[in-house]
Design a protein that fits this description.
elongated; alpha+beta
Length: 315
């Protein structure tokens, strides 16, 4: 199945992550970092977005980015393309700089903005690249304290969450950062929910999905397997058993197609439940979905499984 589109609406805030191809460095000297600064400033001015926090590491980048009318995909395409051209030109090479598509998690800013900015600015300390957050020059931390000027960085929103008086807000921000120094990696800022697209409570997730016409299924992999087994007249243990006999292979493929279409589930969960590698499991699921367009029987099986899931959801 096709990858679900980014959820976009004016004012949406994302944790954006860009990683070097195969974990390789993306910066070779300070000139590269300053060049990225120019591209970020251009994006802010041209696309009407705001950057509330950032950190440039050796082989990856974190941004806390808020969009306006222009969707994130267009903004990030512009930034990554310009920077890739710059690196390839200065290094005399061709090819990718970044590892595939950027990762972005839409966050509930009311609940997570402060913590996310702290998490991003503390990344050098957490990674062991710096002993103190203040000694790392390539993040928004010093600008928040008024120690340097980064014209494309917006600090007002976060600082006003601490105090309307700038000096008091900066002091409170510094204390807040210090309180998080011992904090380890927070998986929710990297994985979120709904296939890694959102981070927030149920109310936020449902509202965000509703803005793009998506329905949130409150279901589990176990629910999917039970619905598939009911449709095929088999047991979960039979689906878990080794071998490629029908109808169990088709039933597993249907389960894969269903899981890939639900925002809260992942192939990793399904693979664990079925004792299967996720790569082939993903392929057969996509094949089932494609074949169902021409095969009325397969289309009927998918519809039956979805019907059971909806019935259980309502019940």
């Amino acid at each position: 199945m096709a990858r679900k589109p980014r959820i976009h609406y004016p004012g949406a805030v994302y944790h954006v992550m860009l990683r070097g191809n195969a974990g390789d460095p993306i910066f070779f000297d300070d000139r590269d970092r300053f060049r990225l600064y120019l591209f970020l400033q251009y994006a802010v001015e041209k696309f009407g977005c705001r950057i509330h926090g950032y950190c440039l590491m050796c082989n990856h980048i974190h941004l806390v980015l808020q969009v306006g009318e222009i969707p994130l995909s267009r903004i990030m395409q512009n930034i990554s393309l310009r920077f890739t051209k710059w690196i390839n030109y200065t290094q005399g090479r061709t090819g990718h700089v970044f590892q595939g598509r950027y990762k972005a998690i839409l966050i509930d800013a009311d609940a997570y903005l402060l913590e996310l900015v702290r998490y991003v600015h503390l990344n050098p300390v957490r990674a062991g690249a710096s002993t103190t957050v203040g000694s790392w020059p390539w993040s928004g931390h010093r600008a928040y304290l008024g120690l340097e000027t980064v014209p494309w960085l917006t600090t007002a929103w976060v600082l006003r969450m601490f105090s309307l008086e700038v000096a008091q807000a900066r002091k409170a921000y510094q204390s807040f950062l210090n309180d998080g120094v011992s904090e380890g990696r927070r998986g929710e800022f990297h994985s979120g929910c709904c296939n890694g697209r959102l981070l927030g409570d149920d109310r936020f997730v449902e509202a965000a999905l509703g803005k793009v016409g998506e329905e949130r299924f409150r279901t589990t992999v176990a629910d999917v397997l039970n619905a598939v087994c009911r449709s095929y007249g088999c047991s979960v243990e039979e689906l878990r058993a080794p071998g490629k006999s029908r109808p169990f292979t088709e039933a597993r493929a249907v389960a894969s197609a269903i899981v890939q279409g639900l925002p809260d589930l992942s192939l990793t969960e399904l693979g664990k439940a079925l004792n299967r590698d996720i790569a082939p499991l993903g392929r057969v699921g996509r094949r089932i979905e494609n074949n169902a367009a021409e095969d009325e029987r397969l289309r009927g099986m998918l519809q039956t499984v979805k019907k059971y899931l909806k019935e259980w959801q309502k019940g």
